[in-house]
Amino acid sequence: MAIRPIHITGSPVLHQRAEEVRIFDQSLAELVDDMFETMDKAPGVGLAAPQIGVGLRVFTYDYPDDEDQERRGVIINPVLELGEIINEPADEDTELEGCLSVPGERFPLKRAESVKIRGVDLQQMPVEIEATGWFARVFQHEFDHLDGKLYVDRLAEPWKEISAEVILERGWGKPGVTWLPGLDNLED
Known about the structure:
Pfam family, one: Pep_deformylase
GO molecular function: metal ion binding; peptide deformylase activity
Oligomer: single chain
Helix content: 10-25%
Distance between the termini: 22 Å
Function: Removes the formyl group from the N-terminal Met of newly synthesized proteins.
Family: Belongs to the polypeptide deformylase family.
Radius of gyration: 16 Å
CATH architecture: Alpha-Beta Complex
Low-confidence stretches: none
Structural class: alpha+beta
InterPro entries: Peptide_deformylase, Peptide_deformylase_sf
C-alpha cells in the first residue's frame, strides 16, 4: 500500500468523466488499497480515483453512522439516484462542504437529502446503499468526481465567485498541482 499524491483542481483528470472499470485484477485491488491509505492519511471521508490521478469509476468512503458504527467500503462503476433537492439556498452553517482537491476550503452547497447508490465491490458483488444526511452528501460528492465535477463547480453565487478567487490566489486551476497527505501541511 502507498499514499498517493492528491490532485488539486485544474488537473485534467479531475475535470473529465472517468472510465468504467472493466478489469478486476490485482492492479485494481492495489489501487483501492492505496485509495484507502491515502483517504485515511489525508484525512477524508471519501476519495475518488481521479483525485489520485486515475481516471476510473471507483471511490472509497468511510463515514460512521449516528451510533458510530463504521460504514467503510468501495464502490466501483456506481449509479446514483438522487432524492429531492429542496430549491432554497444552502445553509451557511450546516451545509458546508470541503474537498481534498480544493484543500482547506469549505463552501455551502445544497445537496439531495437522500440517495440510492448501486455498483459493485472488488469481488464484483453487487453493492446497493440507501443513504440520508451527510452520508448521502458523501456519495453525491464522490460520484461527482467520477463525472468530472468538483463541488466548487456546483456552488451558487456568491460562493462560486469566491471559490474561483481562492483557486486563483492559491495558484491552483492548472495541471500538475498536487499535495501528499502526511508530508504537505494542507487541510481538507
